[in-house]
């Protein structure tokens, strides 16, 4: 079932989004060679709690951490670890914030030190594809319009869109209907209605789109070892157009 949120519920989710944005901005200041994803994990857990929020994914289906920290060829759900980040790495930090029962979800890819032009291209295309998808999140459009916009742009840039992991509805629980693929045909899928809240979170690879799972049962990485980036926002569908509940403002 797809739940429709009231204006009050969306406003509460925006408060969770504001805390999430503040957290990402602090994480951005931390990213440099020598920092570990465990440092980011500890900071995030403590920072959220200092704001009266909690990390929603901690304990979700047995997941143990406040963040997912996916490095280089890891597509998503990387475990935080104590291995120092190196110059030229990329890391995607994904988190879900619960603020008095309202949820917000956002992932961001960060460059560690100096990265190659190829990696900059990957990051730029992935982030732009997110906003092209958001442009399609209009009342009356269909889910397929979002995925088609993302896939068309990404593939025209000679990159690939991950198929196995997709966006989703959110609130009051973490993963709800509808599913939001980042590929597909326009005019297909559920119709977008005012009050729906979804995540759009394209994962884009330099090489092929296929993923494989690590032995931990959570972490997905590219089959060919190519790098992967991801950007994600939580979006409310409103009569005035898409409202980004996790917008980072001028820093984007």
From TrEMBL:
Its EC number is 3.4.11.18. GO terms for molecular function: initiator methionyl aminopeptidase activity; metal ion binding; metalloaminopeptidase activity. GO terms for cellular component: cytosol. A divalent metal cation 1 binds at residues 94, 105, 232. Residues 12-239 form the Peptidase M24 domain. Its cofactor is Co(2+); Zn(2+); Mn(2+); Fe(2+). The keyword Acyltransferase does not apply. A divalent metal cation 2 binds at residues 105, 168, 201, 232. It is an enzyme of class 3 (hydrolase). It catalyses: Release of N-terminal amino acids, preferentially methionine, from peptides and arylamides. GO terms for biological process: proteolysis. Pfam families: Peptidase_M24. Monomer. Belongs to the peptidase M24A family. Methionine aminopeptidase type 1 subfamily. Removes the N-terminal methionine from nascent proteins. The N-terminal methionine is often cleaved when the second residue in the primary sequence is small and uncharged (Met-Ala-, Cys, Gly, Pro, Ser, Thr, or Val). Requires deformylation of the N(alpha)-formylated initiator methionine before it can be hydrolyzed. This is Methionine aminopeptidase. The lineage of its organism: Bacteria, Bacillati, Bacillota, Bacilli, Bacillales. The gene is map.
